[in-house]
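Inputs:
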Amino acid sequence: MAENPVFERATRFLSALRHCQVLGLKVHSANSEGLTVVLPYSAQIVGNPLTGVVHGGAITSLMDTACGMATLCVLPEFEVCPTLDLRVDYMHAAEPHKDVYGFAQCYRVTTDVIFARGFAYQDDPGQPIAHVVGTFMRMGKGLKGTKGFAGAIKGESP
Amino acid sequence: MSDDFKRQLQDAHEKGDYAPLLKLIPYAGLIGVECSRVGDDLLFKLPANKDNIGNPLLPAIHGGVIAGFMELSAALHLLIFTGAPGVPKIIDFSLDYLRAGQFRDTWARCQVCRQGRRVANVAVTAWQSTEGEPIATARAHFKIDEPLKS
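Outputs:
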């Protein structure tokens, strides 16, 4: 996998988010068209103890993260983009003991709002577990208190 | 649903102590969901936990955790109140984030807006300071198993 600036920015961003570290999220691939984040299977995220199927909440976390991070692919500079709304449609249950991949892309960027969509899958992107669509607010790059963080995402030393 | 799980569910409901039930769901333990009965209603709690932080700047709870908490609350609410024979399966979930989830305790309450034979619609409100100032509202559709004909 060829390294690239978007991939590196995305990886640094992800490493700053505590809950994403707890889930073990990793950037799988990233380019200007969108990115893919991996949620490794683990016993702690199981929702149904009888089947070992991952809880929908973990998949929502994966997709919220992936959609939010897809803004890194389209914005020239880092901006804090909180989620405005998110909708997840579950196509079928995830299979236990398999990682879940979350692909997301931004399909419309305006001055205030970014529209993102994506899907979660395991083996075959053609057979998604869930479809997701979300909107994100642009808070602007000059937001107070974010300067050091933006620099860290860019890869500058503090 | 295994008989063991069914018995735990019944037991929890009778005693109004849902901790043993939540212990069976690993994801509930990961984010730290608690549940208590208030009158005839259920109140869900997500205690402040550093591991649930998403935005390190504010700091704020990860949106996905708030979603997971609300989704789990809705499923449990339905499971406990409908007496459905199986764990309800989620069909879709839609949520609006109204305020940042600060690093403090979060609460959630659910309302079954409509329960049909096969599908149920549940609304969830999550708040931190007062219920009148929610941090997020959500609604979910669940597929419920038809009651076994005897």
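Remarks. Chain A has a mean pLDDT of 91. Chain A is about 25% helix and 35% strand.
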